[in-house]
């Protein structure tokens, strides 16, 4: 076990007996550390159900193309915890991370606190101690009581599309979930809204009105769409003709358009050339990522495709299915594993019209709260998918190798995606 893992294991043991959505554990700890959340660079706070990470990836690419230094906070990580914290453009170094974690651990002095809370406090300390031009801050899962929601005066807020997810914490209706996400909105900060269901939009409109905010809305106040293979963006200030996003999938035109709108609405110093360069250079691991080399890729013959995506809810699955449908036709093999708070049926349903040649299921290694591969396979067969439980990613890929010219898609969980990247020897940087 590495020193970082040992520290994180100790911090995990401080988890409170009951999870309550509040900031009551965060605030006192932040105060003891000098309130680092009040000493951050101009911050863009992002909430939503899907596309948070992609939107942040575009904003980072745009700002870096413009010569700016950027902090980023994302979760969860794929292979190494360091991936969650990017300091002025570079993943936090292990020595610096360990020192900050141990300082926060000492100040916390054994008090009950969740893993996400204590590591977010650590991130805020690192961000406050390291100069940068901007901070791109992703919520964990909610809004109002999300651990990140202690920044009082963000430069701007973005709410990406809201859908059903984490209902046990956020509510069982889109209105309840949207009300929680709306908690990141702040009086005096501008807001940009992604495409929303009517029920969610109505809640967001009321929340913004109470705060005196006039958000701009995707597909109403601004548009970003694919035209002749390019991204054409338009708002009240004009039209920009841009190259397509480097991230695959029709939905990435929406995500890129949302990020461009935020950059323009928040007054970020990015011109058309910066947007174009950012679109060419953007990367976001495990989001429809092609795997072209590595130990696992070598298990497939030449002529097969291997793709990796961490999408894990119905909205993400729908975007993934649209991406596959837009590609030249090939036999499709799904290799999937899921956490047991997800319904495999809901995820698989959108792939029905793609007629997968095979669904190969896995138990996610090292995750005690994962669905068993046999359970996923049984539930897939009940939906009339040709499904088979596999013992490992290696055995699944060897089975996929027998289907000539297959497009192999590993999907269903970011935890599975991280395991695959590690075993393939692909470490995000």
From TrEMBL:
It catalyses: (6R)-5,10-methylenetetrahydrofolyl-(gamma-L-Glu)(n) + L-glutamate + ATP = (6R)-5,10-methylenetetrahydrofolyl-(gamma-L-Glu)(n+1) + ADP + phosphate + H(+); (6S)-5,6,7,8-tetrahydrofolyl-(gamma-L-Glu)(n) + L-glutamate + ATP = (6S)-5,6,7,8-tetrahydrofolyl-(gamma-L-Glu)(n+1) + ADP + phosphate + H(+); 10-formyltetrahydrofolyl-(gamma-L-Glu)(n) + L-glutamate + ATP = 10-formyltetrahydrofolyl-(gamma-L-Glu)(n+1) + ADP + phosphate + H(+); 7,8-dihydropteroate + L-glutamate + ATP = 7,8-dihydrofolate + ADP + phosphate + H(+). Gene3D superfamilies: Mur ligase, C-terminal domain, Mur-like, catalytic domain. Transmembrane segments: none annotated. Its EC number is 6.3.2.12, 6.3.2.17. Keywords: ATP-binding, Folate biosynthesis, Ligase, Magnesium, Metal-binding, Nucleotide-binding. NCBIfam families: folC. This is Dihydrofolate synthase/folylpolyglutamate synthase. Its cofactor is Mg(2+). It is an enzyme of class 6 (ligase). The keyword ATP-binding applies. It comes from Devosia marina. Functions in two distinct reactions of the de novo folate biosynthetic pathway. Catalyzes the addition of a glutamate residue to dihydropteroate (7,8-dihydropteroate or H2Pte) to form dihydrofolate (7,8-dihydrofolate monoglutamate or H2Pte-Glu). Also catalyzes successive additions of L-glutamate to tetrahydrofolate or 10-formyltetrahydrofolate or 5,10-methylenetetrahydrofolate, leading to folylpolyglutamate derivatives. PROSITE patterns: FOLYLPOLYGLU_SYNT_2. Pathway: Cofactor biosynthesis; tetrahydrofolate biosynthesis; 7,8-dihydrofolate from 2-amino-4-hydroxy-6-hydroxymethyl-7,8-dihydropteridine diphosphate and 4-aminobenzoate: step 2/2; Cofactor biosynthesis; tetrahydrofolylpolyglutamate biosynthesis. GO terms for molecular function: ATP binding; dihydrofolate synthase activity; metal ion binding; tetrahydrofolylpolyglutamate synthase activity. One of its GO terms (cellular component) is cytoplasm. GO terms for biological process: folic acid biosynthetic process; tetrahydrofolate biosynthetic process. The keyword Aminoacyl-tRNA synthetase does not apply. Belongs to the folylpolyglutamate synthase family. Residues 306-413 form the Mur ligase C-terminal domain.
